[in-house]
Amino acid sequence: MDLTSARELADVDALGQAALVAAGDLTATELLEAAILRVEATRGLNAIVTDLFDPGRDQAKTVARGGGPLAGVPFLLKDLGASLAGAPEAMGSRALRTHVATENAWIVDRYLDAGLVVFGKTNTPEWGNHCTTEPSLFGRTANPWSDGVTPGGSSGGSAAAVAAGVVPAASGGDGTGSIRVPASCCGLVGLKPRRGRTSFAPGGGHGLEGLVNEHALTRTVRDSAALLDAVAGSAPGDPYTAPSSTGFLAALAAPVEGRRILTTSESPFPGAGTHPEVAAAVHAVAGVLEELGHHVDAGAPTVDPDAVADAIAVLHTVSNAQLHAFAKEHLGREPREDEFEDSTWVMIREGFHTTGVAYAEAIGAVHAQTRRFVASMGEHDVLLVPTLLTLPPPYALLDRPRGTTRAFFDVEFATTGWTTLANVTGWAAISLPLGVSAEGLPIGVQLMAADETVLLQLAAQLEDAMPWWDRHPAAWIGV
């Protein structure tokens, strides 16, 4: 297959590519080779940090026609939270630069069972700590829309690869916005599932006391729904699970009932303003939803922003101290300070001194703020807010040390605003590329609800009413 044909396939989403395999028009091997050509054409983005081309070729040979709705589709894994046995897994950390995974993550087995062809791993900041992707280990990932702004993080490598047309979908994880922030920066669909929708087996029961969720970055709503169908479920021994679904992809074809939607463009954190173009995008989407028959009210749920920020900071310090212990075990020695990012070292150092009482109080604060948030939603079942309060931010902003972990998150939340509230509450949240700035940069608009089906149905309506499929970034498939 030549590069011209490979580039033409970039405009076919995951379900469309799988349909080509199912019909016998192309083989999984041909799809993979086309994707590899697109990888080589976009190396300058630095989105992919580990090539797994030969294992991918071996897997592609085993994909049979009719193997499932995603069988044969080339797929990339984020180099964090998506362990693949025998593959390097540095997690963006110099301390883990020689680490190799010994087992598959449960979610990766679900991807493989669905027939997705894994052929690489994508760049991520150290341990997912940052909402930008510029680790010192692998270097920064470029945003296909502009080399002057970050692709977001921590799933920035996956987002850049999908936005550039390398693959139709790639995996991601989200602890304070790490799927939705890069979706907003790169003009993609980014769904954070509700808590418990997928499993963290076999390595853990949950991530960051339930803040973290795993899913993917896509260009279409239907691909996000199909991928969620592939990975939804639980493993034996999971601490909790989400209610079962009759099928997320099938739900897109069902009639959509009118929803009561609460909306604001203001930040839940004091002192953080919203860029006028971002606010205008949210207001425009509110108007379209009203035209579609939904009831939209101005307003916002409330939380104690200091309690939220303090809790997030404490949970991250403990998580980083635990990862430091993991690095120590891997290295067989005490890791050096210069083997970590400066901001990571601040979190590690604080984590060494975080007490059990402080940790328990942080967990309690998360639960208390969840109840306050849900109660203040009243009769509304959907929240419409910005994904980012700003346009895609510059590099060297969201990964710098600020003296304390709390000060670090104060800077992050002044940019991300509402994203972390979905992680705190466990609600599902989706970022959609529904706005464009005067300079042509994507603007994400975010919907939150207790269940993914509601969000996916609304997202599909908005995709029809405000289509984004024909928008391509400057670095589209290396052109």
UniProtKB/TrEMBL annotation:
GO molecular function terms noted in the UniProt entry: amidase activity
This protein's UniProt keywords: Hydrolase
Record bears the keyword Hydrolase: yes
Signal peptide as annotated in the record: none
Catalysed conversion reaction: a monocarboxylic acid amide + H2O = a monocarboxylate + NH4(+)
Residue runs in coiled coils: none
Entry EC number(s): 3.5.1.4
Top-level taxon of origin: Bacteria
Domain Amidase, residue spans: 30-450
Keyword Hydrolase in annotation: yes
Record-linked Pfam families: Amidase
InterPro entries, per the entry: Amidase, Amidase_dom, AS_sf
Entry's family note: Belongs to the amidase family.
Protein name (database record): amidase
